Amino acid sequence: MAKKRSGSGAGAGTGGGLTTPQQAAKFLGVSVLAGAVMAGIALPAAGALGLAAKGSVEGFDEIPANLKRPPLSQKTTILDAEGEVIASVYSRDRTVVPLKDVSPYMRKAIVAIEDARFYEHGAIDLKGILRALNKNAQDGGVSEGASTLTQQYVKNVFVEEAGNDPDKVAQATQQTLGRKIRELKHAIQVEEELGKKTILENYLNITFFGQQAYGVEAAAQRYFSKSAKDLKVEEAALLAGVVQSPSRYDPVNDEQEATRRRNTVLQRMADLGDITQAQADKAKAKPLGLDISKPRNGCITATSGAGFFCDYVREVFLQDEVFGKTEEVRAKRWNQGGLTIRTTLDPQAQESVQDSISDHVDQDDKVATAVTLVEPGSGKIRGMGQSRPYGFGDNETQINLSVEKRMGGSNYGFQVGSTFKPFTAAAALEQGTPTSKAYPSPYKMPYPSPVQTCDGTWTNTEGATVQNEKRDEVGPYSLKEATAKSINTYFVAMISDIGVCPVTDLAQNMGVLMGNGGKLPQGPAVTLGAATIAPLNMANAYATFANRGTYCTPIAIDSVTDADGKDLAVPETRCRKVMSEKTADTMNTLLRGVVEDGTGKQAGLQGRDSAGKTGTTDNRVAAWFVGYTPNMAGAVWVGSPTTKVPMENITIGGRYHDKVFGGGVPGPIWRDAMAGALAGKPAPSLPTAPVADSKPDRPDDDHGRNGGQGNGGNPWPDISLPPDLIGGLDGGWDSDGGNGNGGAGRKKN
Length: 749
Hints:
36% of the residues lie in helices and 12% in strands. The chain is an alpha+beta fold. The longest helix is centred in the first third of the chain and has 18 residues, at 177-194.
């Protein structure tokens, strides 16, 4: 029986149960590592990172052998509803491809220049170490290392895991004995588990090629605008040469140095027999032949003005728990990328939105516009744009003017003016109020008091007044005429009659909240639209009328596929009945009258049913049109997103306006955006209901025409409001020829 070696245990002959690579590791832990350090692979004295001077088998064995390989971060592609690319977003521009989709020249070039004996050695190359030792000794310094492709791959895994954290990246790349020992042990494990083919594939996908390109596919696209599978020999040699020092051999910034490096790779390939000398010489004589594709990362590169929609998609992903239970999980998943996100954006609708915006409002105008289109019944956002582009320059912004603050919008949204009145009318109908209901509706009157609210009772302690747009707008009116003419005193009387709570409850059930996420204020002036709301919320709320009383939450994402082709769960619209079909159909009749012979005539569509409402706020700092057809709803806001710019004697889109009304500027924007979005699509009829058309008898006297001066004040004295809103209330609403200065009396058109 053969004698056991001294110190051998029960596993003699197999290294005490160790595999052959593990036995090699023991030997390396004692001997070769010192040579590796001298070869310039790792430098500081033994003991770095707590491994002590022994650097021995015991210390080597203490290192965990399991290398965790995180999924490679890749670019995420955001598509429109037709599958066309809107934008690509990434923390690292990378597209992982299988080895079969990499040019054979590229595979040979990277092996030739980085690790010529890759297929002959194990995790480490003893001959390479000795060669490096000899070369460095001759040069009197550290001119050559001996890391194998496997070791380089392991190091890149550590770098990838560090992400964009500079401290972690520094730790992953520091030149210490401890780090190199860990690399060696993990390299042994990787060689044993993966095999050469997979290691080469992983290396080509993980390594950095400069110019923000990670992985060979991104590099081929960046430098040559082609796929990695189509690389020619000279192109492959250039990319392989860049890897050693992406900044030094950057062909974009130093063509001469890059050419020298490429030719070195070509000669190395010839020396190894990968190509003939004639092939190498022919390739060396060629120019670099760059065809640069500039990095296009982020929503700022989105097509058709869809940058803000792109940003909204990102916010949805980061905030919706369907993509992860915590913010950290969702953020990590987004940064990891590799997703294909198909959205609801209709390219025809989006193009129409942008065309209409460009036709009516200029980028450098004093005011801006935001337009959002939503599909009734599905909640799908079909278009979203604004006149100030997504960016950082003059008259550009990253604030999405169409959405609420938590989704990247403005702090409060914007005052919506009389576009809020339909919520009052619908609530009254739900309470049983007939359309024939008449109110005196004088030109000017005090706010009725007291009024029931969700919180108790509102009282007009300051004697605030409300007035109509024109002095000859004197009631009594019924609901149809009051809606078409947007009679302020009628709707204040109506909300005071039925109470504020039914109105705000219904509006909130239709998705209407303040832009800062708060609840709607409790006071009768809410019917005049002093609340600040985002255009998306208004468009989607009006879609409820088109959908016969069923509200559906807005959605922007149709599907998400991960890097492995697996479908992920996505947010789905949630629909609920918020009013009867009769109420919704009646509202369709009332709001159709607005565009047929009311304040919204300029918004009317040719050849298809439409309905909507205009809105103009105090001092004309904001103007709106919100409307819909059976298959599309949209909201248009015009105003200044940051400061109050009274829209009087103003030029917008090259056209002069003495006074801006909701029907005058937003109306035509809405009309053109909707017409283009719906071109070639069905034109169904709006479901309607009978509405009393009788006009109450007008008094013979001049009752209400010449109301005296109001006494101003905030009609919601007990309510905390945003500074912009308070500013709008104090001092009264703008009036055409009236002498009232009542606090909340002007929300019109």
